[in-house]
Design a protein that fits this description.
Elements lengths: L2 H12 L6 E3 L2 E3 L6 E6 L4 E7 L3 H17 L7 H17 L1 H12 L3 H22 L6 E2 L6 E9 L2 E5 L5 H14 L3 E5 L6 H13 L6 E3 L4 H10 L5 E5 L2 H13 L4 E5 L5 E4 L6 H13 L11 E5 L3 H12 L20 H17 L2 E4 L3 E2 L7 E2 L2 E4 L6 H4 L6 E7 L2 H9 L3 E2 L1 E5 L3 H10 L4 E4 L14 E2 L2 E2 L12 E9 L2
Helix pairs in contact: 2-8, 3-5, 3-7, 4-5, 4-7, 5-6, 10-11
Length: 497
Amino acid sequence: MTINQTKWHDAAAAHRFVGKSLIDGRLVDALSGKTFSTINPATGKVLTEVASLDSADVDAAVRSARAAFDKGVWSRRAPAERKKILQRFAELMREHAEELALLETLDMGKPISDALSVDVPGSANTIAWYAEAVDKLYDEIAPTADNVLAMITREPLGVVAAVVPWNFPLLMASWKLGPALAAGNSVILKPAEQSPLSAIRLGELALEAGIPEGVFNVVTGLGETAGRALGLHMDVDAVTFTGSTEVGKFFLGYSAQSNMKRIALECGGKTPHIVMADCGNLDEAATAAAFGIFFNQGEVCNAGSRLLVQDSIKDAFIDKVIAVGKTLEPGDPLDPATKLGAIVTEDQMNRVLDYIDIGKGEGAKLIAGGQRVRTESGGYFVEPTVFDGVKNGMRIAQEEIFGPVLATIAFKDADDAVRIANDSIYGLAAAVWSDNINTALNTARRLRAGSVWVNNFDESNITMPFGGYKQSGIGRDKSLHAIEKYTELKATWVKLR
């Protein structure tokens, strides 16, 4: 081991995990006493047992959140005061960056270098950015006759349940916590059962920052119990969810069955990554294409899993992508040199391997990877995998695999590329590479996707909204637009005497 690798392994061995939920400012076990195991994907070994909450516990969390909201300890607090506390929250996240990064890596399997350079700073910056927005959101006065004052005010919804996925546990939580708390809501965070540890620590840091008890609760548990209970609860005003399209539809149903709570969804994707023959820097595009699917082990909702390449350059371009992929072999997630970590669970690894078999069975040509590796570790590692000769109707081109599997599809011209790209139930993101400004922008405008990158992939910041068309979701995370999900507009008409 290198010195840095040893440092992280020593930190992991010394860490004492907290496996409790946070309700009304207190760390608690499930009322039933039930727990579930959270596993280190790099070793297949249990990290710790975590409280497995059900509907009775969810009731307690909602009561706590509602009481805090009704008391106004946060919802009616002066914006400048909320801003100061959220800024302190962000600063505490930065102070505990190594601890939070370690929890993300141990729980989810991502490389420690990514957790430390991407996930944690991105999460803290999100909270800090929304803190700055708190006292810069103005209400409106409508144009009326002189004897009328017509006010349009933005008010917090109330109790918001944030249900987040396991691929970016901390970052996805921050995307929801930032605007929801900035708007004055009480929030119940439900992390994925595969990756609950950073959420628990986040709740503790929120209390330390000064967020009042009950305003931020953390409910650990399974999706079919704790998640379902939040979706069906009659006193939850909104659910904001990131995850699969299948589960997103469950929350739409829960809303219909309960109180018509507001539902915001950021769901699946099958991003088309389009490379035109007139792209002037194919090496740059190939590197972007490789990282676009292999980053975070391919466990990214907007991963560029469909590579559409113009037929005249396809073979040469794929060779470049494969060459980059060979530099991204899976390694120990606690080694700072590792660029590709472990798949989050054994079930997810088997799902990825099953799709590789499906692709071969459909007639696609496996030209790189396709195997489980590092089996001696006990962990769940799959090497970068590339298919050629893929038809867009194949399952590996239509279904979200959520692993390091790239499906390559040839196209003739821009019209053909747009047709293939839009032939999907998803519309989360897309990318196009072309040195012809007309081709690039005309193609971008015709792509049915919430985010389109031109001559780059997945570059953005907190100022840009993120979300999808079609079955990729409803509503947007990030930017000031996200606050719209967590507020109600009130029209107040005053007749003056």
